[in-house]
């Protein structure tokens, strides 16, 4: 029985707020809806949604194993580095590139987890350091003319095969959604994660290897983020650098608004909604900062609503 | 009988202001050692340090005669030492079987190894049944169980994990006499199997019923180590109920010229 955090009605309303506002705007001015007729944009939605939902699931794993400050910093570094590496690896044939990209993303995730574990205090310093590493990676790669998209030439396109008629992106998301709960409930590592999520101090006292578990979680999250990166490369866009950062933030938002560990389908749904809202906002030519600010407000509201309450110490002798 | 665990010159501080200062103690294999302290928190602190739950500020812990360098709950469990320290709680919101299984033998396999509920419950069935715990209790989260069952579940966990040594902190506190008897009988079984058992308790009767040795801990220091043939139950009662306190008090009163009480032994 994994811990399941079900969003309250207020949290669900908050999650639906951006979409509601956009629908309201279109209702007030039907002319705004004309860009939605763009078939290309609509076709992109499944891929974008799967990409964002996978990233959100990866974020959820990291969040479950550590603190907020720690997770966001570590994840930002992982996601950005992953996006860079996957882009570079597109210069290779598709299959080796995909395998190497996933492996590299897992290793990067594990390394960032190890760094985060060795710098556990203070958490804000760890976060700042991880973000600095991410920014340095972006700057370094940009200076070196990588990824190819940054220098103006389009990167190779990775054609991912579908599964039984289902396109690759939804199939990958479905696979993760089915596999993740099974791994959480039915494996040693999954049970350790549940214990860590329930009470890290008690988990340590019960003999669970907390540090190893956290590093493994980062590696697993890196793998899922790498899968999301592979999906993203099926539709390369010239703004891959900023896209990786924005996606990371959106993924954190979807993870929070979706309900956290145990609510995988909720996260996937909110990820889809956020991707759709982002797509529609882009079609409506809304300034990106407005969308980012709106989502940030929603995340803050959700964090405030789900803040831990004080409880009486009941386990003292 | 060789010593499974030994501590020398141990100093530590823990919950409730409990402290240990220069404690030397050994746990021989195939024996039950009762630790009787003036403060339950001090006795619990010995269990916590030996179980790797609290790091000592000074002193040395030896396992089978070899000093250990790193010592944590994980290290202790891997060495076959199970501990039931009362402040150690079960994992909140999760079925109890997870708290009993994690950290144990099933948890020492690779991360992706399967760990199914049915397998875990089957592995726990024998140990928990010995202490009168039902399978339905293992499926509940701790919040759904009475507090006295939490302590018993931790005792079951300690016996399950402790092939080498079992460290029990007040295992019979708040338990009905039938359950206390089951716990003490299980400790005797473990002794017969060659396990070293440390029984930290304030209940002299329970200690006297099963223990081979008695260690008296007074204000964080060892006052006496007595074999079963070297003492009587009444002497242990007197020690537990303040004989040393009274001696110290009488001495101080005499020094202050304010008391007529003569120290008694």
Largest sheet of chain B: 6 strands, mixed
**Which parts of chain A are unreliable, with pLDDT below 50 for 5 consecutive residues or more?**
1-12, 32-38, 148-156, 238-242, 310-317
Q: What oligomeric arrangement do these chains adopt?
A: heterodimer
Helix content of chain B: 25-40%
Portion of residues in helices of chain A?
over 70%
Class by SSE composition of chain B: alpha/beta
The first-to-last residue Cα distance of chain A is 28 Å
Average of the residue pLDDT scores of chain A: 67
Structure annotation, total helices of chain A: 12
Radius of gyration of chain A: 20 Å
- Pattern of helices and strands of chain B: EEEHEEHEHHHHEHEHEEHH
Query: What is the topology, as strand order, of the major beta sheet of chain B?
Result: 6-7-8-3-9-10
Query: Unreliable segments of chain B (pLDDT under 50, ≥5 consecutive)?
Result: none
Please work out how many helical segments of chain B DSSP would assign.
Answer: 10
Question: Beta fraction of the residues of chain A?
Answer: under 5%
Provide structural commentary.
The complex is a heterodimer of chains A (317) and B (265). Chain A has 317 residues and is mainly α. Chain A is built from twelve helices and no strands. In chain A, helix 1 (9-28) packs parallel to helix 11, helix 3 runs antiparallel to helix 4 and helix 3 (68-89) crosses helix 9 (210-233). Chain B is of the alpha/beta class and 265 residues long. In chain B, 38% of the residues lie in helices and 24% in strands. Chain B has helices at residues 40-50, 73-78, 96-101, 117-130, 135-139, 147-161, 177-192, 204-210, 233-240, 243-256; strands at 3-13, 19-28, 31-37, 58-63, 66-67, 81-84, 165-169, 196-200, 213-218, 221-227. The longest helix of chain B is centred in the C-terminal third of the chain and has 16 residues, at 177-192. The interface between A and B is large, with 29 and 43 residues.
């Amino acid at each position: 029985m994994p811990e399941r955090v079900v969003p309250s009605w207020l949290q669900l309303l908050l999650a639906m707020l951006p979409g509601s506002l956009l629908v309201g705007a279109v209702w007030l001015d039907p002319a705004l809806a004309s860009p939605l007729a763009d078939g290309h944009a609509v076709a992109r939605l499944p891929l974008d949604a799967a990409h964002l939902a996978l990233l959100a699931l990866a974020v959820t794993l990291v969040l479950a194993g550590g603190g907020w400050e720690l997770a966001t910093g570590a994840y930002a570094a992982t996601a950005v580095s992953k996006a860079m590496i996957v882009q570079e690896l597109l210069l290779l044939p598709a299959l080796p590139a995909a395998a190497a990209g996933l492996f590299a993303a897992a290793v990067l995730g594990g390394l960032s987890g190890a760094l985060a574990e060795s710098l556990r205090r203070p958490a804000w310093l760890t976060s700042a350091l991880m973000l600095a590493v991410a920014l340095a990676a972006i700057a370094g790669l940009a200076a070196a003319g990588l990824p190819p998209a940054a220098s103006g030439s389009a990167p190779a396109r990775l054609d991912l095969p579908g599964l039984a008629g289902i396109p690759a992106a939804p199939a990958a998301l479905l696979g993760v959604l089915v596999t993740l709960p099974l791994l959480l409930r039915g494996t040693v590592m999954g049970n350790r994660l549940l214990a860590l999520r329930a009470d890290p101090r008690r988990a340590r006292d019960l003999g669970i290897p907390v540090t190893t578990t956290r590093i493994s979680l980062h590696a697993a999250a890196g793998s899922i983020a790498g899968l999301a990166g592979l999906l993203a490369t099926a539709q390369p866009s010239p703004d891959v650098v900023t896209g990786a950062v924005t996606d990371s933030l959106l993924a954190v938002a979807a993870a929070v608004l979706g309900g956290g560990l145990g609510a995988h389908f909720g996260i996937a749904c909110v990820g889809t909604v956020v991707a759709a809202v982002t797509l529609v906002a882009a079609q409506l030519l809304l300034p990106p900062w407005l969308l980012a600010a709106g989502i940030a407000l929603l995340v803050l509201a959700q964090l405030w609503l789900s803040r831990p309450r004080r409880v009486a110490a009941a386990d003292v002798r | 009988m060789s010593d499974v665990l030994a501590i020398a010159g141990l100093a530590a501080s823990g919950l409730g202001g409990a402290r240990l200062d220069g404690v030397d103690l050994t746990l021989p294999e195939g024996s039950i050692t009762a630790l009787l302290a003036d403060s339950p928190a001090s006795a619990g602190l010995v269990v916590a340090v030996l179980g790797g739950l609290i790091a000592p500020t000074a002193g040395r812990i030896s396992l089978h005669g070899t000093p250990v360098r790193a010592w944590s709950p994980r290290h202790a469990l891997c060495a076959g030492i199970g501990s039931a320290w009362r402040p150690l709680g079960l994992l909140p919101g999760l079925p109890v079987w997870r708290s009993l299984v994690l950290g144990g033998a099933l948890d020492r396999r690779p991360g992706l190894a399967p760990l199914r509920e049915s397998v875990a419950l089957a592995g726990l069935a024998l140990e928990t049944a010995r202490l009168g715990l039902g399978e339905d209790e293992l499926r509940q989260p701790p919040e759904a169980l009475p507090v006295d069952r939490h302590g018993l579940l931790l005792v079951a966990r300690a016996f399950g994990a402790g092939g080498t040594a079992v460290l029990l902190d007040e295992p019979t506190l708040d338990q009905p006499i039938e359950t206390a008897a089951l716990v003490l009988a299980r400790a005797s079984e473990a002794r017969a199997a060659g396990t070293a058992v440390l029984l930290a308790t304030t209940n002299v009767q329970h200690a006297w019923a099963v223990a081979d040795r008695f260690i008296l801990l007074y204000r964080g220091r060892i006052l006496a180590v007595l074999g079963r043939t070297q003492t009587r139950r009444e002497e242990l009662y007197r020690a537990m109920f303040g004989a040393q306190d009274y001696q110290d008090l009488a001495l101080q009163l005499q020094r202050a010229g304010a008391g007529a009480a003569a120290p008694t032994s």
